[in-house]
């Protein structure tokens, strides 16, 4: 185990508390930089989606994880970013301009959502954000002069400083990675300064935050705006990656996927957003694989246990029919959420910390180390 | 003119008069205790001052400024800090970040500066941290800096709440039952700290308290309340002798 001896206040401000961080993050960055030359084009494409989902995950963490304001409307923010980019592209606006414009516009709309949301907490806020997402979805489908309605919009290939950047090129991947890294660094900066602490204060006790001089309404709106703006930036990249956008891509299911990202990753740390993004992006090919191969495998198992060819074929077609049921994906997502909330509320990152501690303390690790204790019930009177 | 003044302060919930035309004044550098049976309106007065409730009528003055209509977060900015009867700490944050939130009214940095963590933000953070360390030393909280609140015992949380209030460098501090839930030894510590706050930090203290020995040890003056009304005001001994106060506690 490493013991840190702090000799300066700087030690508590630093992003990298000790040299080990430089080594591990250095290796990670190096691996990410050479990834385009090592991985297949399919995995690269998945990695780009991981970057985009992780960026949205970080945005959602700021709002939900750190400010405590649940949102099921982030697909709408993503859509606003994506459509702003696609619309401005029609007028030959250069990428840096529409990238910033998309983030700015989404941020402003986020703030506008934040104002009515000020008086809502918990489940009511969730309902309000769902309504917002549904409204945006409807507007995208109906405002045909701008959004082209249900026919969707084609997004032209990204061109940056005169160079075209195809959506499956390494450059596009680096761009997404850069946006993710900048988002993470900016968020970490925010969290170690007064604004970030005010967010956490609002999450844990609005009454106390107010009595310490935090303008709760202002900071909630700020949190909404920042979160929405980052999601808007991600939306631009999302649009470019898909090269075609239409309203049915930005449904409630996508918002739920973003919630899964942070719930499964862990809501208390930015690591959670990245781990959750990897999980959600990689589960899709895994499910497809199961769907394609599971019926055959199960039929094979049945055959080895003595089932005749007719029975095996029967089983295979039944399993295949089950695997292609509508809404199965949603059900699997639901089961995953329930299992994580029940058995690992701290998410994948929490599990990773436990595994790490196990090895650090070996053989002294106690199972009760992470048992959560709720010792005193806080008064709810002044809420 | 008094340092802090409440004039005819009333708070009615429908027909219930939680606080009924209460007037009192606090002089600069004094420790004033409010006592009274349960439901007498003591905490309601605090909640009126920190603007969690809006008074039905009456006015509140601080340093000759009318603060009755101020926004709740502005109260802290004027230099009035408070603690809560049922601890209101930021559970899932470390002690340090709890105390740094106490510094919020002194933060001057803008959002964009914080996103980039400019040198000015860094310098400010260090100033905040230095102040927080002074409070940590004052209240002997050194062992707990990096601990999460959710894992700390009640007595320590009580002190941390006091520390958070002190971190804002208040001129007036409102302590809502500082000794509730503390054992005898911790209550003793609390009484020393309250007196030190007055003598060393020059903070004016307004306190709601049930523990009469603590009240007797630290208070300069005492106000006794019952049913939202002032029964008696004066030195601790005077108030405890007052026939109305005896009647309120023991029954007539």
Relevant terms:
A: 383 residues; mainly alpha; two-stranded antiparallel ribbon; 16 helices; globular; B: 252 residues; alpha/beta; Rossmann fold; 2 domains; 6-stranded mixed beta sheet; 4-stranded antiparallel beta sheet; 10 helices
Number of helices of chain B: 10
What shape does the CA trace of chain A take?
globular
The major sheet of chain B is characterized as:
6 strands, mixed
Q: What is the overall number of helices of chain A?
A: 16
Structural class of chain B: alpha/beta
Structure description:
- The complex is a heterodimer of chains A (383) and B (252).
- Helices cover 72% and strands 3% of the residues of chain A.
- Chain A has 383 residues and is mainly α.
- Chain A has a domain at 29-284: ABC transporter involved in vitamin B12 uptake, BtuC (Orthogonal Bundle), CATH 1.10.3470.
- In chain A, the strands form 2 sheets. In chain A, strands 1-4 form a two-stranded antiparallel sheet.
- In chain A, a hairpin with a 2-residue loop joins strand 2 and strand 3.
- In chain A, helix 12 crosses helix 13 (270-304) and helix 12 runs parallel beside helix 16 (347-361).
- Chain A is globular, with a radius of gyration of 23 Å.
- Mean pLDDT of chain A is 87; it is low at 374-383.
- Chain B is globular.
- In chain B, the strands form 2 sheets. Chain B has a 6-stranded mixed sheet with strand order 6-7-8-3-9-10, sandwiched between helices.
- Chain B folds into 2 domains: 1-79 and 170-252, Rossmann fold (3-Layer(aba) Sandwich), CATH 3.40.50.300; 90-168, no CATH class.
- Chain B is α/β, with parallel strands linked by helices and 252 residues long.
- In chain B, helix 3 (95-102) packs parallel to helix 6 and helix 5 (119-138) crosses helix 6.
- In chain B, a hairpin with a 2-residue loop joins strand 4 (57-62) and strand 5 (65-66).
- Chains A and B meet through helix 1, helix 8, helix 9, helix 10 and helix 11 of A and helix 2, helix 3, helix 4, helix 5 and helix 6 of B.
């Amino acid at each position: 185990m490493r013991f840190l001896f702090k000799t300066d206040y700087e030690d508590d401000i630093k992003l990298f508390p000790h040299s080990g961080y430089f080594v591990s993050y250095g290796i990670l960055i190096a691996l990410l930089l050479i990834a385009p030359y090592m991985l297949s084009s399919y995995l690269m494409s998945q990695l780009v989606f991981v970057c985009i989902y992780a960026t949205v995950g970080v945005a959602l963490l700021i709002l939900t994880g750190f400010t405590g304001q649940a949102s099921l409307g982030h697909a709408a923010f993503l859509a606003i970013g994506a459509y702003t980019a696609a619309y401005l592209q029609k007028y030959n606006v250069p990428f840096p301009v529409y990238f910033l414009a998309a983030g700015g516009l989404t941020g402003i709309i986020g703030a506008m959502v934040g104002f009515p949301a000020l008086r809502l907490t918990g489940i009511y806020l969730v309902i309000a954000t769902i309504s917002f997402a549904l409204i945006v979805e409807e507007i995208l489908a109906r405002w045909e002069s701008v959004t082209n309605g249900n026919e969707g919009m084609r997004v032209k290939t990204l061109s940056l400083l005169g160079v075209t950047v195809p959506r499956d090129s390494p450059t596009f991947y680096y761009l997404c990675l850069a946006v993710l890294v900048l988002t993470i660094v900016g968020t970490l900066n925010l969290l170690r300064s007064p604004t970030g602490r005010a967010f956490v204060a609002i999450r844990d006790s609005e009454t106390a935050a107010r009595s310490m001089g935090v303008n709760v309404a202002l900071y909630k709106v700020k949190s909404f705006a920042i979160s929405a703006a980052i999601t808007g930036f991600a939306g631009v990249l999302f649009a470019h990656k898909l090269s075609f956008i239409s309203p049915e891509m930005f449904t409630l299911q996508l918002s739920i996927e973003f919630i899964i990202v942070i719930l499964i990753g862990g809501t208390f740390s930015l690591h959670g957003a990245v781990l959750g993004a990897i999980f959600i992006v990689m589960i899709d090919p895994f499910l497809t694989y199961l769907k394609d191969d599971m019926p055959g495998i199960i039929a094979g198992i049945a055959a080895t246990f003595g089932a005749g060819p007719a029975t095996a074929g029967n089983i295979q077609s039944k399993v295949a029919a089950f695997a292609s049921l509508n809404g199965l994906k949603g059900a699997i997502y639901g089961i995953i959420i329930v299992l994580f909330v029940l058995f690992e509320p701290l998410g994948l990152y929490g599990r990773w910390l436990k595994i790490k501690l196990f090895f650090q303390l070996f053989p002294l690790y106690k199972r009760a180390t992470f048992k959560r204790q709720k010792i005193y019930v806080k008064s709810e009177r002044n809420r | 003119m008094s340092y802090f003044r409440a004039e005819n302060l009333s708070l009615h919930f429908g027909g219930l008069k939680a606080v009924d035309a209460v007037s009192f004044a606090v002089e600069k550098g004094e420790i004033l205790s409010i006592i009274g049976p349960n439901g007498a309106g003591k905490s309601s007065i605090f909640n009126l001052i920190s603007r969690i409730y809006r008074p039905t009528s009456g006015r509140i003055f601080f340093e000759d400024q009318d603060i009755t209509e101020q926004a709740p977060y502005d109260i802290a900015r004027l230099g009035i800090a408070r603690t809560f009867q049922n601890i209101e700490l930021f559970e899932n944050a470390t002690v340090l970040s709890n105390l740094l939130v106490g510094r919020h009214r002194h933060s001057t940095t803008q959002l964009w500066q914080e996103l980039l963590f400019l040198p000015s933000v860094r310098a400010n953070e260090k100033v905040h941290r230095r102040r927080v360390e002074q409070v940590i030393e004052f209240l002997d909280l050194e062992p707990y800096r990096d601990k999460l609140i959710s894992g700390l015992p009640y007595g320590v949380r009580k002190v941390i709440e006091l520390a958070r209030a002190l971190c804002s460098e208040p001129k007036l501090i409102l302590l809502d039952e500082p000794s509730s839930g503390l054992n005898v030894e911790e209550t003793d510590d609390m009484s020393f700290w309250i007196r030190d706050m007055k003598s060393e930090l020059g903070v004016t203290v307004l306190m709601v308290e049930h523990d009469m020995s603590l009240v007797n040890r630290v208070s300069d003056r005492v106000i006794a309340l019952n049913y939202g009304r002032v029964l008696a005001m004066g030195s601790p001994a005077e108030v405890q002798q007052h026939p109305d106060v005896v009647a309120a506690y023991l029954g007539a």
